[in-house]
């Protein structure tokens, strides 16, 4: 992105806030203008002191001017800060809406921590650009220009001296700006990578601890912090060359002004008051010029940050062009049907013509080797991905003809990774159906056999479950997730059964929960335990991208060699771990 395009994009950010922003800048500039009046008044005071004494009115006038300047300045700054926050708020809201609706592959291609850092860190830089750089540039520019004009009017010769020295510094600054922008971009990228690595480690903190990997993670994340630090130091080096260059130029010119101006006063070419006023203006010039410089530096950083925010806001989102008109279920149609569905992740074919049906209120188990594509079947039913060819139908209607919201409201998904959110048990249960009443809550808790557990908790449903639900056992988390799913009264519950062996109590509770859930809706279960497979009315065996077997346990044991192998393999594994084979076996 060129500097000009980057600057245009920064300006575009302020659309909708320009009136307030302009007023805020006007107030800040007016405050600087009032400040500039002060040397003129001082000159008047000094020059007139020989003829008559200073009046109280005069002193009160100067004091009043100070107060008004402070008030105007304060108001302007507040409005600027607020505008900066407003701009950032709208950028953040747009980005939040976008990040929650990206297409699934976008989450796989980008690191979550980096996306979060774009939303938090980069937008904060944008706020600084709006609230600080804008006034630094405008007020610095105008005040600098005004001061320069007054200096020129007061004494063109002395002004020429100051202008020549400052121009040398300006050349140094211009030469360093491009590198400052690059360093700014590297800092932002480094912070994003650090956040992504920290998210990776904290998201799997138990695994990190169990593998005693804290020092390794510390080193790895520390390295990211160091590269952000190195880029930050590089930016600091550039700034620390630029700022003193300007300061030096102005202070050097002050010395020259004193020397040459003093000689001109002695030769009666100018008055002492005029020299003092000129000197005051020359010292005042430091502030706007440094402001300008800082503003330019911040804009350079802002362009880097905006680039990152832009990249995130251009990521593809799920398109939901179909109107939200509910499609009436076709009576007697299967609740879910796959017709010759083909799907691949990139070049890798996972489903190669899969066809099956799940009839209403039936329980179907989906089994297959690891990597056979069982979870992919769920992802296509939920429309996380689009099939390459073939059709997925829900209640007899093509998924592509339904709105995403309509389609997902009829399904409930309980993933193997059971996402339980930080918050209370109640918040987790009501997540999909916020309006569900106490009776509904009691019903689903009873269904998943959690009513006893909740009754025993000191805070009942208002108990905090911890980050990712870590205050609950694995089996309890699974049942909370099933309860949450049932609260929406779905037509079909998609459940990825936990492959880890549950203890007997939890296993029994889960089996009961599934049996009761089966009375409310159809179930399609990726089954990992033989007990679940046997209880399902029908079993689908997925292999090599196709349905290799479809029938009951007894039928498949006879007709499907792969099913027999799957069952036998799992049974032998269970014997080696010493658990009860008939109940705890997994076919997945
Ligand atoms: N997002 C993805 N991008 C690329 N490949 C993927 C992705 N998700 C899954 N795969 C691959 O697709 C194949 C099917 O994966 P899937 O998760 O559907 O299998 P599964 O039968 O559910 O496996 P398991 O029983 O081990 O959970 C696997 O080989 C997997 O490596």
From TrEMBL:
Membrane disposition: Multi-pass membrane protein
Chain segments annotated as transmembrane: 20-42, 54-80, 135-154, 160-180, 248-266, 278-299
GO molecular function, one term: ABC-type oligopeptide transporter activity
Cross-referenced SMART domains: AAA
Top-rank taxon, per record: Bacteria
Keywords annotated in UniProt: ATP-binding, Cell membrane, Membrane, Nucleotide-binding, Transmembrane, Transmembrane helix, Transport
Domain ABC transporter: 336-569
CDD domains reported in the protein's UniProt record: ABC_6TM_LmrA_like
An annotated GO cellular component: plasma membrane
Location(s) in or outside the cell: Cell membrane
Keyword Cell membrane: yes
Pfam families: ABC_membrane, ABC_tran
Keyword ATP-binding found: yes
Domain ABC transmembrane type-1 positions: 23-301
Similarity section: Belongs to the ABC transporter superfamily. Lipid exporter (TC 3.A.1.106) family.
Name of the protein: ABC transporter
